[in-house]
Amino acid sequence: MHGWCGKILRVNLGDQTTDELRLDPQIYARNLGGKGLAGELLFEHFQRRWDDPQMPLVLMTGPLNNTSSPTSGRMTVMSRSPLTGTICDASVGGKMGTMLKRAGYDGIILSGKSRSWSGLLISESGVSFTDATQLNGLGISDIHTHLQAAPGMGKAAHAMIGPAAEQGVRYAAIVFDGHYFAGRGGLGLVMAEKKLKYISVAGQQKTAVFDSEELKGAQEEIYRLVAASPILTGDLGISNYGTGALYDLMRSRRMMPTANFRQTYFEPSAAMNAAAYKKRYKTKKFGCAGCHILCKKVGAKGEIIPEFETMSHFSALIGNPDLDAVVEANRICNEAGMDTISAGVTLATYAEISGQELGPEKLLKLLADIAAGRGEGAALGQGSLHFATEAGCPEVAMVSKGMEFPAYDPRGAQGMALAYATSTRGGCHLRAYPISHEILRKPVATDRFSLSGKARIIKISEDMNAVVDSLTACKFLFFAASLEEYARALYAVTGMQTSAQQLLTIGERIYYRERIMNARNGFSAKDDDIPLRFFEQSGSSSETIQIAPVNRQEFLQERAAYYRIRGLDENGLPTAEKCAALGLSC
Amino acid sequence: MRCIGVIMLKLLNKYAQKLVVHGLCAQDSPLVGGVNDVVLWNRKDPRSAELERIITGLNINSMIFARPVEPFASILDYHCRNSESEFVPEDTETRTFLHSIPVARTLTATEIIPLLQKRTGCVIEGQGIICSGTVSPEQAFVVFSSIIFSAFVKFFVDFAYALHSGTADEEAKNMLPELLAAYDQFLPTSPATALETGPFSMPDEILQAMITAGQATVDARMVDSFFGNISYFANEHVYISQTGSSMDELASCIDACPLDNSASTGITASSELVAHRDIYLAGDQRAILHGHPKFSVIMSMLCFEHNCENRGKCHIRCNKQRFVDDIPIIPGEVGTGPRGLSHTLPPAVQGRRGAIVYGHGVFTVGKHDFCTPFANLAKIEKSCREAYLKLITESASLPRF
Known about the structure:
By secondary structure, chain A is an alpha+beta fold. Chain A contains 25 helices and 16 strands. Chain A has a six-stranded mixed beta sheet, sandwiched between helices. Chain A has a six-stranded mixed beta sheet with strand order 8-7-12-9-10-11. The two termini of chain A are about 30 Å apart. Chain B has an eight-stranded mixed beta sheet, sandwiched between helices. In chain B, strands 2-1-3-7-6-5-4 form a seven-stranded mixed beta sheet, with helices on both faces. At the A-B interface, helix 7, helix 8, helix 10, helix 20 and helix 21 of A face helix 1, helix 4, helix 5, helix 6 and helix 9 of B.
């Protein structure tokens, strides 16, 4: 086999046994890896509760990991979400994807539940279990330092959970190599439920490549496009400023979620942009294995500079004008191992319901309380919808399917309204990311204030991103490159003859399978929606930019069109006919 | 639904009309389809049924099928006759975006679907070009226009090299007079509306001057589809067209980027922002215009140096100092990469009217406004066309054109 290792490690944490799963090559070809292969392996388990010991937590690499294909350092983590009850996959960077392949595995399936907190060590020479009790209560950086100090593990990849997961926070993350988050949906809590504190992986194996010269050609094509992309490598792009480069754009387009999405413009934001962080913290760049863009930023004193979503939600969404407080809030979340988007929105929900303003002090205290599961933090750790429902006003929770929205107000980029609604893991921007064309003009610009024709665009983008997360590549690269170039890279690595459009068909099958899994757990059209606030209230318009509510009727028309295009029934449920066409059991 | 359908139809008609206005197709030629949950066309045509079969076989949202006007139609057919399954021009457009141009013999779903699964456009011998988009018909329009550009450049570049090596085929030689005659209508013209005279300092007048100059550059056929860019330097800001913006639709597509990078709003600015900025920082220029006039691109790709160690890498490396008149021809890829034109262009235009980037296009500069850059863009293209005709006339016993 080229590209894939051909074996997946199965770990039963209950009796601490392991074995190797070897799949038919056709299954690899139909699912690619990452999100696709993880979905295939979870399919039969999906009616299990997230906290059922037999509900697997899957870590899966892709065929491009551990090769010279650009941005091939990512991988997927997937299970069922404690926050939403939907399927939940996260694409994560760092070096775990590379290291797993070097250890000889395409992925890991974790099931069962350990009797006490344990760790898992994986290398070419074998798998062993450790007692991890001593790591309880430690912050992520201490845990990471401890894991790196283990003999022979200095250069290993490490996945870990922090105090938030131990305390039952439903948006607890799994943190890779100290800095890279499988952030959304509470996958960290799934790992905690299994009493698994960390996974360390080391290896040195090379991945067999089908045609190295062809891979070099594909690599050149992709690098050429990246160099031509102002968003990635331009002077003002992500390579220089991190994802925070988007902050000014959201401000200038008047679509920055402010005051729990009651407004879309935050006056102090002009002084809180990526340039301000760069100047104040004298930032340097770092990033994932196998990537030359290096989108992450660290300050001269080691401060981790927040990503765009964090910058926005810990400033505009909760009304905080203090730059240092944003950095500190980010640090608290990172150390606790919890998702900053859900934390930010949940705090904004709290502020709206309680009528309180969250100054820096209150903000930081509440975050620390969430991480520690104490006081009001215990309830806030259950997420925005749970908190608002308990308070008797679920409509205040800015969520879809129970997952909190990131920092793009759908009134300023209306394709986002449909994308949030149809996302299989809830209020997530990454499934279709219409911001790419509605705001960033890639591949070309579309009208951000219109839903016209967006159903098909959203569907195609979901399919495309399902492929990207299965390969497993970085979505940022697709501001520049396309599946055309990655089809060549995939052929070069695996020998699999394919094309951009054939890959989209694979993506369509992967995404449809997620709809089936959600439908089995009761999700339907009633869940493919966004809060009424976006249909009833305007955003913060200026003299030249009108931020009007999303037209409810147009939204429903376009959602109905989406169902027809995706081959779902009027209630958003899978059909036997489409399942048969895609070779899926309905 | 009706409202949404009307918006889609408007978009289809816009790009059908744009193909005509840009002089690429005759009025009754473009068939532009858009797909949401149903397929809509800009007009009725007996071939729509087959085109819809193609659409059904692909995950796309738009399609353009049209026969270009002369000389482009004949050039495309020539390439089809001389290619087994695809042809590969070597200009920047192809190298960066198209990669290769597939060739089909019939307009049938069976033949076209596999080609459009791999690439976003292909040529059908004797019938025209078919292109697709996944977000907007604008993508299909851009690919359509790029295929014409790249095929045109390839024909004339290949022909000059073939003449030089004594291998030019009779078919190409016989086609040449008619092709050149048909191309006369695409030669640069004076702007229909006078360009504003500068210097400018108020943002409104800067934007207006850029909008006028952008439109004039498209009208003068010195740039295709949404390629090319334009900028102006004032108030410690570079005002520059956005990435992927059409030069004839610049209203609300211009970013003001502060020199000190204190805001990243300009993340959507052209990929050549750094090159423009460094030109301004190195001298007293205030206006830059970048177009893709075809003969300038063709001449940039013609070098007859024997046994050159850089042969095949001219787009990124060249040891020679090459000129058309006083205009240097330089290597450099799009953007800011290590081999990017952001490194080669700024020093090359110092003290000059402009520069030609190999296989890519022309950059011209002005100290006050866009009048001089526009005039020089046209002059450089004229010089390059004359130089090309002289070159092929001298390379073979061809009649003077």
